[in-house]
Amino acid sequence: MSPPAPLRLALAQLDVHVGDLSGNLAALRRWTDRARDEGAELVVTPELSVCGYPPEDLLLKAHFLRDWRAALDEFARGTSGIVALVGFPERDGAVHNSLAVVADGAVRAVYRKQRLPDYAVFDERRYFTDGDAPGLLDYGGTGLALSVCEDIWADGPPLPGPAPAVDLVVNASASPYHRGKGRERERMLAQRARDRRAAVAFCNLVGGQDELVFDGHSVVLDHRGEVLARAPQFEEALLHVDLDVETARAARFQPRCSRSTREPHEPAPARPRHAPTGPPGPLRRAGPGRTGGGATRIRPHQTPAGTRLPDGTSYASYGVTFSDHAGTHVDAPNHIDPAAGAAAIDELPLTAFCGPGICLDLAADTGPVTRPRLAAAPAASGLPLLPGDVLLLHTGVADREGGTDPYLTDHRGLDEGACRWVAGYRVRALGVDQPSPDDPDDSVTPAHTTFVAAGILIYENLANLGSVAGRRFWFTGFPIPLRGGTGAPVRAVAFPPAGT
Predict the structure, then answer these.
(1) Which residues are known to be catalytic?
(2) Distance of alpha carbon 6 from alpha carbon 222, whole angstroms
(3) What is the maximum span of the chain, computed from C-alpha positions, in angstroms?
(4) Where are the beta strands (DSSP E) in 248-296?
């Protein structure tokens, strides 16, 4: 049997305008027909391409929602010879940010965005209700996973299904521009492709709305995270690519080597622009025997008295027994949800354990870490919190109680609002100078469950955070790659910019 033909995919990078129903409908028809005429089987359009992004208070008007759905249905009736993925606001009791699958004259399926951002320039939770169903499609034997913008920024759900079921992850997006955003997106998308061993197609909006600028820069990457095709910035474009899904599918059934060492296609961790030249600042453990996770025991190696090597020298070694959550450590996803096929510590890429970071100083207040308290900290320190940052919280617990019994019981965790605020910023990891980001009487909620679901790593029992509080730095916290481990001890180090 001959292998299946490549999937002919097109990304329609459009400049659609908020509220311009007739203009947007005409643009969707024009670019979809062009994609079909140029040989594409599947065309992807940006997030909310029917109504434009962000529609904001127009979503509060019932007649606009009816008109937008009518426009989508009109577009569907005229669509043949191609499958189109079209973003639209869907009213079904609640209002959803949805992606319609249009084929053969009708809307055949709908995926509802699951991660609704409400930070920085975004306010989607004010208008939309998040979806709760996966967007898996079988397109002629090719497994598609649908996602909308924010869905793809955090690893894990809602990119659903076991890896063999997904050949292509499609993301319809309205991702605003800032300097360096294109590189940031491509690094993230490459990691998603490698983690899923699936191709990724990212179709972004172009143009502007009020203070927002959308740069396009749509891209398709293969299962190794390598760019196959890239659209230009700041102009409309139709990006075509032929996807060899069979090669990616075969790769998924090969044994995966341990992610504790980089695969040949995995790039080395990026070096910060402020490459450190001064000595690193170690983030030391809080104190011997008082860091949770079980005791660490060091035993002298049992060497018979008087044992010497032939040249007359002797040697010494130690046996070490410890929990995988002893001392300063990082939690693996399977620590919280071991029954759901979550990743073990040795299955995570090295790039997950390093990156730019900031440390917010919360030590002056020993109360619970609430959302208002946490949200005020970046401005107070003059440090913006950026997606992909490692966020360290200096609570002062290790300074006050490290090495004592109260260290395990007197700390205060993040409340649910604070956890959602952190998750909304898509940080890489969160670290605390106490046994847990949760209260002692509830050791896994809300912080552990929220952060694991958002793909955020958790570092615990850090110390010496006062030395980097209110500063930006490059963080590394590489774990021991314990096979199947639910966490691992780390040597956590912060590299401040040279001269600071």
Answers:
(1) 47, 113, 149
(2) 13
(3) 92
(4) 281-282
17: its two tokens = 């305008």
Give the residue among 460, 470, 458 at the shortest CA–CA distance from 419. 458
* Phi, psi at 182, each rounded to 5°: -60, -45
- Please report the domains of the chain, with CATH numbers, ordered by start residue: 7-252 (3.60.110.10), 281-296+316-495 (3.50.30.50)
Distance CA 245, CA 223 (A): 9
- Give the span between the Cα atoms of 132 and 126, in whole angstroms: 17
**What pairing do the DSSP bridges indicate for beta strands 7-13 and 237-243?**
antiparallel
Helix (H, G, I), strand (E, B) or coil at 62: helix
The sign of the torsion formed by the CA atoms of 353, 360, 410, 287 equals positive
**Dihedral angle over CA of 90, 91, 95, 99, nearest 10:** -10
The structure tokens listed for 102 are: 């249009």
Reported as a single tens digit per residue, the pLDDT across 129-147 is 999 888 888 888 888 999 9
DSSP 355-401: EEEEEEE-TT--S-B-HHHHHHHHHHHT----TT-EEEEE-SHHHHH
CA dihedral 322, 325, 330, 335 (to 10 degrees): 130
Residue 388 burial (10 A CB sphere; 0-12, 13-18, 19+): middle
pLDDT number for residue 313: 76
The one-letter amino acid at 479: P
| Main-chain dihedrals φ then ψ at residue 431, nearest 5 degrees | -130, 145
Q: How many CA atoms lie within 13 A of 222 on its CB side?
A: 19
With cut-offs at 50, 70 and 90, classify the pLDDT of residue 252: low
d(CA 373, CA 392): 15
CA 204 vs CA 46, 107, 126, 225: distances in Å: 5, 22, 23, 18
Give the per-residue pLDDT at 289.
Answer: 38
E strands, 180-304, where? 199-204, 206-209, 212-215, 219-221, 227-230, 237-243, 281-282, 297-300
Residue 52 near residue 16 (C-beta atoms within 8 A): yes
